[in-house]
Write a structure and sequence with these properties.
single chain; alpha+beta; Beta-galactosidase, Chain A, domain 5; Immunoglobulin-like; ten-stranded antiparallel sheet; eight-stranded parallel beta barrel; about 20% helix; globular; binds (2R,3S,4R,5S)-2-(hydroxymethyl)piperidine-3,4,5-triol
Length: about 725
């Protein structure tokens, strides 16, 4: 049993394979956190220091105050002055919220979440449901804890039911709250920008609030929803590490506060600045899900827990099949595409061994540049005189699959759609919408907009054999308002928007069951667990420069498996060394290419064919295997990782140098996951190694030159 209620001590205990999470019902009404960490059968009650000046609830005695209790869920206005999880504004307008524990239920599996993606349960997953009530508003709050024993992950989400007589506004909703009784923690987050996502940042927590988040309507390039807390002393292999993530693609907030008592409070949930939701009497609201993991074996194990979880419980099962090695037209041709050129790409690409041709932006309506046509989803007649179906049939007849680019959530002012429905773009009433990349954001919170898109895509792709959609989203939201909602409900637009996106994605998945999706948002602007259930991979960044990619990919793999990471070789400038470097960096994830093979030399194209054939031999190790970081680019002058199959019979090691590596230096890289008694052969050099030797370490000389990288593929004899 993964979840237990111990009646005598009124404790809930949640076990995963290696961790335990526990809290207790305190003074009948309150849920007080006790423990999260290494698996244990017994634990001391968390010490409840009373350092607060005030207030004291009569029932608590003067020793205890909500201001310093490590609550499982805290409420605005009820005596906890730190940031809180939930605030509902009832008819008195105060926002004072005070839910009290009522009952619990433990059941097998999990509850689905209405209109939102959520983690697939394991065969032995269980869920704890806690019911709390707020006397004044009559609202009920349900807390859900679902356990994923194998990957050491526990998820949380909440539901609010308005059983009162008047409407209430949910003004704050943070489904993950965790109070740790320690002050020795660092906060790790991934910050970035367009073309430079997922940079690693590790800073000491300090008194006060530290936070990252997004108010952009997308999870964003700027801050990824992933966050970790780890002991100051934690390393890759040792020490406590707690990882958190949010199964959501919109605005969010991750917050950490080291409080007056030296406890650390972490919150994760909806960004309060862009979120609010009104529930009329009888209505129910369900929040997105947050997930957490704990490792006492450092950050490496934290990453591996999340990698396993993302592969087994978040990504579609299809993502575990081999991913196509694609030839994408974007950096090869940009908008300059037509049937004639693409059929040449298809023919040559098939001969070179590509699995799929992906026709990127520029195929529809008057889309000859980025100034027009988003929203008008029909194939351009001049570019495809015999229609899309005929063109795709011809592509496939060359022996290559076909993928296509779409950006459903956007509209150009210069489009038939916008001319017919200017009110379908997000805009605050009476204000001019702000244009970005010459486009506006469609109001995906409106059902009729989603219905229009469903109708348009149903028509344009009907009878067209599409194997792959690249779903893009190229700007953030501002000046947000929906013409379909009354003033008091404008606060709901961001959340309703994302639900609309998920509805359309669900439709795509069901309507085109044989196709897969790669999601993208100007590169990695929505690299999140909310997108991952729909696609087999995410376009990691628009930046395909391998030097920059080393940082971006290293950061992404802290939270997400290589399976999610779409990595392309681009623009090798006819330089074979650069081509090799680009390939070896792209091999760290799911390989693809975007370059003009019609203009490349025979030498370059022959080398690309060889690379594709080579990658196919070991890509399953990256796609399905476990990931170990030996050196990260932010700390060292090179990066080194290895991936192993579950049984450690195959190991792929990549070593990528940054430009400033000192020539001649040699690094000892320990492959600790190797089987000590086995013998391995490196498929490139033919060299044989005893497993013990690999565990002790391989000496890898660094070249100390730009564009140097190394790939070692070890197979057990
Ligand atoms: C941004 C994407 O990230 C690129 O790969 C490409 O698809 C362009 N959009 C097309 O407009």
């Amino acid at each position: 049993m993964a979840i237990r209620f111990i009646k005598s001590s009124k404790r809930f205990v949640i076990d995963t394979k290696n961790t335990t999470y526990a809290f207790e019902i305190f003074k009948r009404h309150y849920l007080v956190h006790l423990y999260y960490g290494k698996k244990k059968a017994r634990f001391e009650e968390a010490e409840r220091r009373s350092l607060g000046f005030s207030p004291n609830v009569a029932e608590y005695s003067s020793k205890y105050s909500p201001d310093n209790l490590p609550l499982e869920v805290s409420f605005f206005g009820s005596g906890d002055y730190r940031d809180t999880s939930v605030c509902i504004v009832g008819k008195d307008g105060t926002g004072v919220t005070d839910f009290k524990y009522k009952s619990y239920r433990i059941f097998e599996g999990r509850q689905s979440i209405d209109g939102l993606p959520f983690a697939r349960p394991d065969a032995d997953s269980e869920t704890l449901e806690i019911l709390m009530q707020d006397k004044v508003t009559g609202c009920e709050l349900y807390l859900y804890y679902t356990v994923f024993p194998e990957s050491d992950v526990i998820s949380r989400h909440m539901a609010l039911v308005n059983n009162g007589k008047s409407s209430v506004k949910l003004a704050r909703c943070m489904p993950m709250e965790l109070n740790l009784d320690r002050s020795d923690l660092d906060m790790i987050t991934l910050w970035g920008r367009h073309n430079g996502e997922c940079n690693y940042q590790r800073v000491q927590t300090h008194h006060g609030v530290q936070s990252v988040g997004s108010r952009r309507g997308a999870s964003s390039h700027q801050y990824n929803p992933f966050m970790a807390l780890c002991a100051h002393t934690a390393t890759e292999e040792r020490g406590d590490a707690y990882g958190f993530n949010f199964v959501y693609s919109g605005s969010f907030l991750d917050e950490v506060e080291l409080d007056q008592t030296g406890r650390t409070k972490a919150l994760m949930g909806m960004d309060p600045a862009t979120f609010g939701y009104i529930l009329d009497a009888g209505e129910r609201f369900e929040s997105p899900e947050a997930v957490m993991t704990y490792s006492h074996k450092g950050l490496g194990q934290m990453s591996r827990n999340f990698h396993k979880f993302v592969k087994n419980n978040i990504m579609p099962k299809k993502a575990l099949d081999p991913h196509p090695v694609v030839l994408n037209t974007w950096e090869a041709c940009y908008f300059d595409i037509d049937e004639k050129k693409l059929l040449q790409f298809a023919e040559k690409g098939a001969a070179m061994g590509f699995d799929m041709l992906v026709m990127d932006d520029g195929w529809f309506a008057e889309r000859h540049h980025d100034r027009a046509a988003l929203g008008d989803w029909y194939a351009n007649k001049d570019k495809f005189p015999n229609g899309l179906a005929d063109f795709v049939k011809n592509v496939r007849s060359k022996g290559i699959k076909f993928g296509i680019w779409i950006e459903p959530e956007m509209v150009n002012p210069d489009s038939d759609l916008y001319r017919a429905h200017p009110d379908w773009a997000l805009r605050a009433s009476g204000r001019e919408p702000l244009v970005s990349r010459k486009q506006l954001v469609l109001d995906m919170s409106r059902d009729e907009v989603i219905d229009y898109l469903i109708g348009a895509f149903d028509k344009v792709f009907d009878g067209v054999e599409i194997d792959y959609f690249k779903w893009d989203m190229n700007r953030h939201m501002c000046n947000v308002g929906s013409a379909a909602l009354p003033p008091e409900r404008q606060c709901e637009v961001y959340f309703r928007y994302i639900k609309g996106v998920y509805r359309l994605m669900d439709w795509f998945v069901k309507r085109f069951p044989n196709a897969v999706i790669e999601t993208c948002s100007g590169g990695g602007g929505r690299y999140d667990l909310g997108m991952m259930p729909y696609g087999i991979q995410i376009w990691t960044s628009d930046n395909t420069n391998p030097y920059n990619r080393t940082f971006i990919q290293s950061g992404a793999m802290l939270a997400y498996p290589a399976t999610t990471m779409s990595c392309h070789v681009s623009n090798p400038k006819e330089n074979m060394k650069s081509l090799d470097y680009r390939y070896k960096v792209a091999c760290e994830g799911m390989l693809g290419y975007e370059l003009n093979i019609l203009e490349m030399s025979d030498e370059v194209n022959a080398e690309i064919s060889r690379q594709i054939a080579e990658y196919r031999k070991f890509e399953h190790v990256m796609r399905l295997g476990e990931f170990y970081r030996l050196a990260s680019p932010e700390n060292t002058k090179y990066s080194a990782y290895y991936y192993t199959t579950d049984d450690a019979s195959e190991i792929v090691l990549t070593v990528v140098e940054k430009e400033d590596c000192r020539a001649g230096s040699t690094k000892l890289l320990k492959i600790k996951a190797a089987l000590p008694d086995a013998t391995y052969t490196d498929l490139y050099s033919g060299k044989r190694y005893a497993g013990r030797e690999l565990i002790e370490g391989l000496y890898i000389p660094l070249m100390g030159e730009p564009d140097s990288a190394r790939l070692i593929y070890l197979k057990k004899d």
